[in-house]
Specification:
The protein is of the alpha/beta class. It has 3 domains: 58 residues, OB fold (Dihydrolipoamide Acetyltransferase, E2P) (Beta Barrel), CATH 2.40.50.140; 172 residues, P-loop containing nucleotide triphosphate hydrolases (Rossmann fold), CATH 3.40.50.300; 63 residues, Orthogonal Bundle (Ribonucleotide Reductase Protein R1, domain 1). 23% of the residues lie in helices and 23% in strands. It has 8 helices and 13 strands. The strands form 3 sheets. The protein has a 6-stranded mixed sheet, with helices on both faces. The radius of gyration is 22 Å and the shape is globular. The termini are far apart.
């Protein structure tokens, strides 16, 4: 029996090189080789499914490269609404959700980002910026009490050079990031750019180089980018994992249409702790008798481990995710 022949349009594995996707925009990707060289690559096929953080196999195609294979992902952090799916990054260790004491952050958006991280089993960190603003910060910190009670790392920081505080919290935050790959997520005005520019002194220069390489000019401000953080690795043992931050574009809405409503409670730690005690296996945790979750919602008649605000957010999300499936 004759040996099957290799199709001429599919390269042999020996011809392919490994790489890390460090930036994307439209049909362009920037891939970094293990030696640190970066080059423009184009995914094979009509649809670009490559995101920052992906490990790929590529080959030279003229002056650029062609991505031939996407390696298996550990996870993919993304959001989905009625119209489209927006992928942020892949193969993450942490998601850093950066919010500010002023203007007041949206607890609904915070909860949505946390649910998305939980769904992909990515450890989230919450950083509350503007600790130099005493009264707004105290109020915002109090609103985060339920999240600290759930076991989330909630870090106070101050990124304002105009109002420095004795301990700005950045060093403590960095201790949670060292040796890991972290997606930095947050609304406009939360301090994302300030934090990245502080930890990656050449970030603006690198951003300009990426824009020039991808020939996308100002439009790359809406793309996602990977930055190495050498300052956090100076004292790290030789051979240990390097630290990376991934800067993401801001967003106004965070859809969770990729999550089944029956899975929602499992993605909210304060509810998840009690779902096994419900009387009915298909309990929605909204109105059923014998619901162990409802028994833990604090109100004027009972104390509990689930805040009223958190259960209200759950109810709103459950309704939203149920409606979009009809």
């Amino acid at each position: 029996m004759s040996k099957p022949k290799q199709r001429p349009d599919i390269p042999l594995a020996a011809d392919l090189e490994p790489g890390l996707v460090v930036a994307t925009y439209g049909r362009h990707c920037l891939v970094e080789t293990p030696e640190g060289r970066r080059l423009i690559c184009h995914p094979r096929g009509k649809k670009n499914q490559v995101v920052v953080g992906d490990q790929v196999l590529w080959q030279i195609a003229g002056d650029e490269g062609s991505i031939e294979k996407l390696q298996d992902r550990r996870n993919l952090f993304y959001r989905q609404d009625e119209i489209r799916t927006k992928s942020f990054a892949a193969n993450l260790d942490r998601v850093l959700i950066l919010i500010a004491a002023d203007p007041e952050y949206s607890e609904s958006q915070l909860s949505r980002a946390l649910v998305a991280a939980e769904a992909e089993r990515i450890t989230p960190i919450i950083a509350l910026n503007k600790s130099d603003l005493a009264q707004p910060f105290a109020q915002a910190w109090e609103r985060l009490a339920p999240y600290r009670a759930m076991g989330y790392s909630v870090m106070p920081i101050s990124l304002s050079p105009r109002s420095p505080v004795a301990d700005d919290g950045v060093q403590a935050l960095c201790a949670h990031l060292q040796g890991l790959t972290t997606l930095v997520l947050g609304p406009s005005g939360s301090g994302k750019s300030t934090l990245i520019n502080r930890l990656v002194p050449d970030a603006q220069v690198e951003t300009g180089e990426i824009s020039l390489a991808l020939n996308s000019g100002k439009h790359t401000t809406t793309s996602t980018r990977w930055y190495w953080v050498p300052a956090l690795d100076v004292s790290a043992p030789a051979g240990s994992a390097k630290t990376a931050l991934i800067d993401s574009p801001g967003f106004q809405e965070f859809g969770l249409h990729h999550i089944e409503p029956t899975r929602l409670a499992d993605c909210m730690p304060d509810l998840r702790a009690h779902v096994g005690g419900c009387k009915f296996y298909n309990c929605t945790h909204l109105h059923e008798p014998g619901c162990a979750v409802l028994a833990q919602v604090e109100n004027e008649h009972q104390s509990g481990t689930i805040s009223v605000r958190r259960h209200r957010i759950y109810a709103q999300l459950f309704e939203e995710l149920s409606q979009q499936r009809w």
